[in-house]
Every structure is written in C-alpha cells, then in structure tokens.
Design a protein that fits this description.
By secondary structure, this protein is mostly helical. It contains five helices and five strands. α1 crosses α3, α2 runs antiparallel to α3 and α3 packs antiparallel against α4. The longest helix is centred in the C-terminal third of the chain and has 36 residues. It starts with a helix and ends with a helix.
Amino acid sequence: MTTNDEHRGLTEPLESVTTFFGALMIIAALIGVAFLVFSSGGTYGGLPGAVCVTNPGTEYGGDWHTSAVTARPGHSISIIGSLEVCADHATLGEQTLNVVAALTAVVFWGGVLFLLWRMMVTARRNGPFTVRVATAMRRLGWFIIVGSTTAAVVHLIAIDTLLTVMTKITNPFPNLILVPLHLPIPILTGAALLTFARIITAGAAMDAEIQATI
C-alpha cells in the first residue's frame, strides 16, 4: 500500500516550487497593502499620486515627437521606443484603472497556485492516479485557458482606457488585437492538463475493472 510520504514524493519538485511562489505572492501582497496604508504624500487616503502607463506592442523610431498622440492637461508623454504617459496627480479613476491592470496577473497566478496546491493535496490523500486527481487537473486546465484569456482582455482594456483618458489621440489604441499573443503557452498548457486528466480518468477506470475481476 502506498503511503502519504510516497505520494508526497511523486508531487515533487512541483510542490516545493508552488509553495515557494505562493509564499512570495503572500509576502508581496502584505507589503503592497502596508505600502498603501502607511505611505505618505499620496492622494485618496495614501494611494500613490503618480500613475504611468506604457502602450504595449508599439515602437516609435526617430520621429518620437508624433502629432498623433498628445497629452491631456496634467499629463506628460515620453516616447523612447515605446509610448509612456504619466499623471503626476492621477485621479481616483486613473488609479483604479492602474490597479485593475496590475491585479489581473496577480489574480490569475494566485488562482493557478491555489488550484495546483489543491491538486497536490488531493494526490497525497487519494493517490495520483484517481478520478479526484483527474477532476482537479481538469479544473486547473480550464482555469488556465479561461483565466489567461480573461486576464489578458481585462488588462488590455484597462490599459486602453487609461491611454484614452490620459491622451488625445488621432486613432484609438487597438491593444485588444494583442490578446492572441498572450495565449499560446497558457492554452497549450491548459490543453495538456485536460488531456492528462482524460488519460488519468481512463487509467482509473481500467484499474477499477481489474480490481473488480480479482
């Protein structure tokens, strides 16, 4: 009979890596909350007053004083390869959009780490080749596929909105067309997990049939 220690050995080194990055994320979250609460000189109850956003997927050559983009009052533009717009005293709406743009990746990776941890706990308790592990793996695969798409869309919409609010532009920033560039690796990873979940489910069913005939 396989023990929990043997099951734990099967989940290494992923378990250690997940624990390490999970701890780092928790520490970073605590530091971020402490910074927002205790920082001085900001606006809106201590929130930093400056917000800067860079337009993704756009590179400018020698003509960096482009007339297609001009800063709105209270904002400044810096174009050194990429377009960056800053607000030294950002409004609450601009700060909110900036937080949303940053939090999308944090929420996504937090969800991935949590579901990984749940899958490994299930593997330790029930064995690695069980229907429960397959279910946890399937849940993780779908979360990676749907979550990465949602995170990319929300992030780019927040960036688009910030750039539109902070600048006067001749043509809108078509950042949503960059969404597919964020997806190949997450979709391949999610599809691989869904495939392995099917394999484990089939293996668990075959094992049950063998046990029934003994």
